[in-house]
């Protein structure tokens, strides 16, 4: 590596935390005084930033994750996850504690997530000097929409490094998501809450700097808007039974970024994303696992070409 080569392929900002997974008999869950959960209730590290970092590292990209993490048992799980997968983690102290969520998972793999928003403080910030240093040492930055990433956007813009973000189930109207949507060169989101995905994708591109916008639509594939042209990305059959959709969008984003940083065109990047997202749906919610580069490329070579 030459002295002018960035030390990191992707800096992932925010989105670390711990999920408690509960498999329920159906969603929505009817009211009852109690339910017996014979599959167990499990807690594991892994929220959106963790899963993107995990997916990137599994695909061979040098990944660094920056976030606020508590000095608590949940934070220990986050730190252990990164050690186990060889992912560099800068964990700044968070007195409010590590981010937490509860995921209710139905028999068909759908999930309902309950996020604990108390694990943040209004004054939380990433130190600008640290942020500039990590950004300047990276080829790309993926910004999650968790606190306090919104306050980091102006500093990241000054760094001049390409940005991506994931708006998740944005409805196209909530103003909280707009700074992320307009600051990123590449925008991911779910089509689940969109009445008109094409209109939302075009509004993001027109009002911001994005050259590519992707809305994932589960079994219906995805919408890709690249350089003004909208295309539909076919879904890819999962390689095993679907057990949980948690992390599928993060896997899609990681594989798309792998393609982008490898110089692939947007359509091929989206196909990589579809393969990785389908794989993620076959991973039990209690595990943190991502498709590897060899399997991704093998499935790309043997499946239909985009």
If you had to describe this structure to a student in words, what would you say it looks like?
- It is a single chain.
- It contains nine helices and 13 strands.
- By secondary structure, the chain is of the alpha/beta class.
- It has one domain (8-29, 36-302): 3-Layer(aba) Sandwich (UDP-N-acetylmuramoyl-L-alanine:D-glutamate ligase), CATH 3.40.1190.
- The strands form two sheets. It has a nine-stranded mixed beta sheet with strand order 5-4-1-8-9-10-11-12-13, with helices on both faces. Strands 3-2-6-7 form a four-stranded mixed beta sheet.
Strand portion: 15-25%
Question: Can you identify the CATH superfamily?
Answer: Ribokinase
CATH class reads: Alpha Beta
Q: What is the molecular shape?
A: globular
Strand order of the largest sheet: 5-4-1-8-9-10-11-12-13
Secondary-structure arrangement, i.e. CATH architecture: 3-Layer(aba) Sandwich
Q: How many β-strand stretches?
A: 13
Are there runs of 5+ residues with pLDDT below 50, and where? Answer: none
Domain Carbohydrate kinase PfkB: 183-284
GO molecular function, one term: kinase activity
Keywords: Kinase, Transferase
Protein name: Ribokinase
Explain briefly what this protein structure is.
By secondary structure, the protein is α/β, with parallel strands linked by helices. The chain has helices at residues 48-58, 73-84, 128-136, 149-159, 178-183, 197-207, 248-261, 266-280, 293-302; strands at residues 8-13, 18-23, 41-45, 63-69, 88-93, 100-105, 111-116, 138-143, 163-166, 186-190, 212-216, 222-226, 229-233. The chain is globular.
């Amino acid at each position: 590596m030459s002295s002018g080569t960035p030390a990191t392929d992707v800096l992932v900002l925010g989105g670390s935390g711990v999920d408690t997974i509960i498999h329920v008999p159906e969603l929505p869950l009817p009211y009852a005084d109690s339910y017996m959960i014979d599959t167990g209730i499990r807690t594991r590290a892994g929220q959106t930033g963790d899963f993107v970092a995990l997916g990137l590292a599994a695909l061979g990209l040098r990944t660094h994750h920056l976030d606020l993490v508590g000095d608590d048992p949940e934070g220990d799980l986050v730190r252990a996850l990164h050690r186990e997968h060889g992912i560099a983690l800068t964990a700044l102290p968070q007195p409010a504690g590590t981010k937490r969520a509860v995921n209710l998972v139905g028999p068909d793999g759908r999930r309902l997530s309950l996020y604990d928003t108390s694990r943040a403080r209004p004054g939380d910030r990433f130190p600008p000097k640290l942020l500039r240093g990590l950004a300047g040492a990276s080829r790309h930055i993926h910004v999650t929409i968790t606190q306090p990433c919104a306050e980091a956007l102006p500093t990241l813009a000054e760094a001049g490094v390409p940005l991506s973000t994931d708006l998740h189930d944005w409805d196209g109207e909530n103003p909280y998501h707009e700074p992320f949507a307009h600051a990123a060169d590449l925008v991911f989101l779910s089509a689940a809450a969109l009445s008109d995905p094409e209109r939302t994708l075009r509004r993001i591109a027109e009002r911001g700097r994005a050259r590519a916008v992707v809305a994932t639509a589960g079994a219906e594939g995805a919408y890709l808007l690249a350089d003004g042209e909208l295309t539909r990305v076919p879904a890819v059959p999962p390689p095993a039974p679907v057990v949980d959709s948690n992390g599928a969008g993060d896997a899609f984003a990681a594989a798309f970024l792998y393609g982008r940083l490898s110089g692939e065109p947007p359509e091929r990047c989206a196909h990589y994303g579809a393969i990785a997202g389908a794989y993620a749906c076959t991973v039990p919610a209690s595990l943190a696992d991502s498709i590897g580069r060899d399997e991704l490329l093998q499935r790309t070579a043997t499946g239909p070409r985009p």
